[in-house]
Amino acid sequence: MEKILVIKNLNMKFGNHSVLKDIDLEINQGERVFLIGPSGCGKSTLLRCINHLNKPTKGDIIFQNINLNKKDVDINLIRRKMGMVFQTFNLFPHLTVLENIILAPTKLNILDNKTAIKEALELLDSIGLKDKANFYPGELSGGQKQRVAIIRTLIMKPSLIMFDEPTSALDPMMTKEVMGLMESVAKTGITMLIVSHEMEFVKELATKVVFMDKGKIIEEGTPQEIFERPKSLALKEFFNN
Ligand SMILES: Nc1ncnc2c1ncn2[C@@H]1O[C@H](COP(=O)(O)OP(=O)(O)O)[C@@H](O)[C@H]1O
Ligand SMILES: [Mg+2]
């Protein structure tokens, strides 16, 4: 199977606080990898290192066979192929839903304005929010905002989408809406890397689960292996809390 992302001996320090320690991880094309672990163990930092929002202290990130450490790498070109969805949506409040969605593809000359609008409206229609195209984010519910944020990522046709706790700011109803959309995204076969505390969701959607604790990967395996036969004390404790 083709590897889309290879992380080798990744280390990240903030000052002398070591946040990621010797992380090795491989993700194949089409996999859905869930990262789980206690708060503060380094999950968000790992995602931010993958797209170089945080520059790793040591180690390699190889995305679609390109080592991001190489001097001539255009990180902005790489980032177009890596979508990122955040807990707090990060929509621009002064732009309408439609303007938020078409901003990146038009600014980067990936789509002309007319095509971008057409694709954005189709995507909005697919999630039942076409009538909200000219609304501002402040006029939407949290679940609607997050679904728009996901659509905004999809219009860039990324090869990998990373989600950092996409439902943890949402109530159960909205969580369901967002998970429903993520399930449809999964059906397209796109590679997904997801940080989530919704264990039922992890079990249902993951092809691989990675458990982190204190900056290290402690265990990884299929959902069955991780949930039914956890090996480490740290993982057993995590499930008991
Ligand atoms: N920009 C930063 N500067 C200093 N420390 C940070 C920074 N970002 C994260 N950390 C620290 O790194 C550790 C891991 O944080 P984070 O990756 O956000 O964990 P998680 O997402 O698993 O909750 C925490 O101890 C956090 O305080
Ligand atoms: Mg986090």
Quickly give the structural class: alpha/beta
What's the CATH class, please?
Alpha Beta
What's the multimeric state? single chain
State the share of residues found in helices, binned by percent. 25-40%
CATH topology-level fold name = Rossmann fold
Shape: globular
CATH homology group = P-loop containing nucleotide triphosphate hydrolases
Mean pLDDT: 96
The share of residues in extended strands comes to 25-35%
End-to-end distance, in Å? 36 Å
- Number of self-contained structural domains: 1
Order of adjacent strands in the largest pleated sheet: 6-7-8-3-9-10
Q: Helix segment count?
A: 9
CATH architecture name: 3-Layer(aba) Sandwich
Main beta sheet:
6 strands, mixed
β-strand number = 10
Listed once per kind, the bound small molecules are: adenosine-5'-diphosphate, magnesium ion
The radius of gyration computed from the alpha-carbon positions, rounded to a whole number of angstroms, is 18 Å
Low-confidence residue ranges:
none
Order of helices and strands: EEEHEEHEHHHEHEHEEHH
